[in-house]
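Subject: two folds for Thursday's group meeting

Dear M.,

Sorry for the delay on this. The cluster queue was jammed most of the week, so I only got both jobs back this morning. I'm pasting them in the order they finished. Each block is the input sequence followed by the predicted structure tokens. Could you check whether the formatting survives your parser before we put anything on slides? The first protein is the one we discussed after the seminar.
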Amino acid sequence: MSTFTERWRQLDWDDIRLRIHSKTAADVQRALNARQTSRDDLMALLSPAAEAFLEPLAQQAQKLTRQRFGNTVSFYVPLYLSNLCANDCTYCGFSMSNRIKRKTLDEHEIARECEAIRAMGFEHLLLVTGEHQGKVGMDYFRRHLPDIRRRFSSLQMEVQPMGQEEYAELKTLGLDGVMVYQETYHEAMYARHHLKGNKQDFFWRLETPDRLGRAGIDKIGLGALIGLSDSWRVDCFMVAEHLLWLQQKYWKSRFSLSFPRLRPCAGGVEPASLMSEKQLVQTICAFRLLAPEVELSLSTRESPYFRDRVVPIAINNVSAFSKTQPGGYADDHPELEQFAPHDGRRPEEVAQALAARGLQPVWKEWDSWLGRDPA
């Protein structure tokens, strides 16, 4: 097999759904006792039957998290460079059909944002844009990435999918990682929510992590937008299949997983399947048992109460004080938002809350002398 698409074609959505929902308490108990979590074990841990085993599941997940990551939790923050978008997606505030103000940061505005972010202590930055190849494509990134990279210890991106050669070039400009979420792994449901633009190409997006792996990108981030399809359990299982494929084929790269639930936005749709907070904890813990060494991330989409209590169980990477609009840190303009974050606390408040629960906030975990020199 050359790309994950070939593995994806072997997976039957309805069969996976039936298998997950047929799991019993005995299946869950076997999964909890397994020395290594298999695909079948993961189905049991994601199943409705596992909801009665949340306490032992969380205990095992916490034990594995502490073994691998100690008591540390890393902090990052997103920097939105532009809300221009050439796609029309039913769930996104940046969709081209939404009548919102549009803005792309110039060199001066980027510098102001970087200064505001550095003043809060952040060293790990995630660059985010809408998907607009013409206005926010490679020419824009060539112009601005080197200067941004010099200001931070690590640099990741969540932008439109690109080609392998473009990713290889971005790596020379200082890029460490790329987050690319499939949104949903159900092709027909994907088509229902992506109405115009390049993002309509399901398979171009599906194969993006393969291109990242071939380009030698250090960290590859995966996830599904929970609630977009009519079965969040199957979508999460598909994320696991994707992860296992990539780990085997691109073993030099590291991986991260995120668990974004649909949040309110301009023109947004209602979730097709609802995941409760308890079920989100169940899912996070199930993935920790499947992949003890993988970075699990939790964003400000979730509430302060939830984050303060779940991060100590199995999360090792969090965002804080996220602004989802261009220019949000130096000049707050809520009308430009992609979505409304739930946890609006300042980073020092989040750090204090986690420290009170025995965790050590890590603001910087990368130095140039440990690897590639900054561009």
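Second protein, same layout:
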Amino acid sequence: MTEHIKNERWVYFADWERSPATRVEDLLLLGYDHFSKATPLTSHKHEDAYEFVYVDQGAVDWEVGEEFHRTNAQHIIHTRPGEQHRASFDYIGPSTIWWMIIRDPAQHIEWFGLQEEERQTFVRWMQNGPRVQLVSKDIVIYFKRLKQLLQQPCTELLEFQLRHYVLELLLQILHHPQHIVQSPNMNTYTQQLKVRLQQNPADRYAIEQLAEEMGLSQSHFYRVFRETNGQSPTSYMERIRMDYACQMLTESKMTITDIAMELGFKTSQHFSTVFKKMIGMTPKAWRKQHTQLDK
């Protein structure tokens, strides 16, 4: 059956464009991605630039050097110049992200046209800011406005407007206090649910049961869970099972059918379908690739 929802991508890349926007040399790339299925996102780095990634929908696991970070909706993560980074397991699951790559202000004295004192302020913020932050949903407004500016015909004030919105976006990220998680209780409950599933991945929990444990109606539980984690409870639990499956495929000699049964799937076909959607390849291909990498 043909898929009706496809991956969507929009990218502004300074070297490709022929417009006054390219004179804003410190904005290297701006992009939007909607991943309807798992898609490769392998290791890379930017020698002279910072990358900021805002998770609009879904949840994404990242590896930055030897660090592991999980981001949900409304989280923004950044990498510094020269840092190797990738999506965990080299695949990004179903999600929506906005991202921006800008030059390192510490290495460019005319960075976005700022005075020296202002530039040094951004240097300090960007070098010392937390890796992952929870930010307001309003940050999307700035990404969308930049996208509109980069797509519109040249105007007299285009360069000024681009600089303004990039700096406003950075101020939203770097200089605003950490936003409160929508539901601290739900955040704690989510972590407890993750531990339960890691210990017993075959367990299946109905929304009704989970809502009852929290003392909430099903609809309220579903809404708060999605706001807190950026995905539905079902998608969240399947992602944990697939991470566990990746571990078993690489660390054990269990057959794929046995792994499917261990994870509570009734058939290996169903397990393979879910695995491919979440990870981007079949369990067999995953095992073959990672066995070869270990040799």
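Two things I noticed about the second structure. DSSP finds ten helices and eleven strands in the chain. The longest strand covers residues 49-58.

Cheers,
T.
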